[in-house]
Amino acid sequence: QYGFSISVMTSPSDFIKELVNRTCLQRYSVALEQWQVSLIWSFTVSIFCIGGLLGSLVAGRLISKYGRKQCLLLNNFVAIFGAVLMLLSRKAMSFEMIMVGRFLYGINSGVSLSAHTVYLVECAPKRLRGMVGVTVATFISLGKFSGQLLGISELLGTEQRWPWLLGFNGFTALLQLTTLPFLPESPRFLLLDRGDRLACDKALKRLWGNKDYSTEVEEMMKEKAAMQSVHNHSVMELIQNRTVRWQLLTIIVYFTTLQLCGINAVYFYSFDVFRAAGIQEQQLRYTALGTGLCELSTSVACFMIIESMGKKVLLFRGYMGMSATLVLLTITVYLQVSHHNISHWSQHILMIKIFVFSSDPAGVTAPLPGEIFTQSFKSAGYTIACTINWTGLFVLGMLFPIIVEYLDYFCFLIFLIFCTTCGLYVRFNVPETKNRTALEIAAEFERMHCKSGESKDKSSDSAKLSKTITCETKF
Questions:
Q1: CA torsion, ordered 390, 407, 357, 112, to nearest 10 deg
Q2: End-to-end alpha carbon distance in the chain
Q3: Each residue of 400-419: pLDDT tens digit?
Q4: pLDDT single digits (tens) 265-290
Q5: pTM (two decimals)
Q6: Which one of 105, 118, 134, 340 is most buried, counting C-beta atoms within 10 A?
Q7: Is-contact 382 369, C-beta < 8 A?
Q8: Are 277 and 409 spatial neighbours (Cβ–Cβ below 8 Å)?
Q9: Do 292 and 420 lie in a common domain?
Q10: Could you tell me which residues come within 8 angstroms of residue 334 by beta carbon, excluding any fewer than 6 positions away?
Q11: Are both 180 and 273 inside the same structural domain?
Q12: Which Gene3D superfamilies match (predicted)?
């Protein structure tokens, strides 16, 4: 749902802008100026992020109260109601219905991203959890590609059929609503939250077959006992705690750059990006389709790259690689004004940028808060990461059309600044996290940033860190 909602608005953009104009002309007898239409269009795209932020903030309470499976099932009704609004918007001559539908899609995506990830990882055996976790990014890429594929003019990207394109989220929600009841609830939730050992055993048997899973159950019981003595820190406590300030700064830098590296601008406003890159009008839809296929095919093999290389190397290589592509893209777009025969190079460079992003930062960034924070800070870390993610997506959706209008092809230089800054930050301020526990990573952060001249000033902070490590080691 998340991936589909990001890419699906590109194809019917002209039809929706026309609906906005006709609605205001018919209802208020007012002909909107171009900047007014662009502002309404940007808000229609970006309101999805407001819903996503709201959904991600309430997701934790919902999945704890109703369970992972039940939360996913109920969440489908939000998407179905949004789809109904999308289907009726053209007939009702109301672009406001599209806005409300996008907002509901955002809530659905915010909840499902959290609930689905937790449900999937908790249902998987320990030896498969890493691979299963990466499939979240793969299916987001599948959603993006599906939105682009259905948006071509041969399928649903026409003046008559575009409401069905925007309402397609409802069909995927119906698919999950009819199939998910046949799957069991998360065994970990049943045992740790509900205390139902019998239901947990039954769920494990359905998921894993007839095998000995007593070791996993014992680990869950030990975790339940240990969690009772660990205090989970709030977001404000995380911000105020000096012992984890570098981890917090790392989360802020990573997730801000994830949205402002330019990759989601390609999906939100791919036609504007490709026009700025000099691609011909008749090739826009198929170029956008190619970007989705490139990301999907790359993300399928992403987990093999992650397992074989260090995550610090992947992030540094990824962001510096994207910086190089953005420099080349700006040069080629500038030169094609006088040399039209090099316009196809811009398309190839965009594909390379998407390939670099999909193979490196895309699969590494999402699980980062769970890796660099110890258990007591993880919940607050994920909350901050989700807030930055959705807020950055909203800002990008609102401002990018204006940036393209005023800066034209120099808009890529803004993304270049963020990618280069993040790459250098990774190189000099972040330790390698591969095959390390959160405690080892915390100690490495402390070693990298503890200057000898500040040792006395940090003595109290080191004592706090020592206590935290002792508590987590017991856990």
A1: 20
A2: 36
A3: 777 877 777 677 888 999 99
A4: 766 656 666 666 667 777 777 777 88
A5: 0.79
A6: 105
A7: yes
A8: yes
A9: yes
A10: 409
A11: no
A12: MFS general substrate transporter like domains
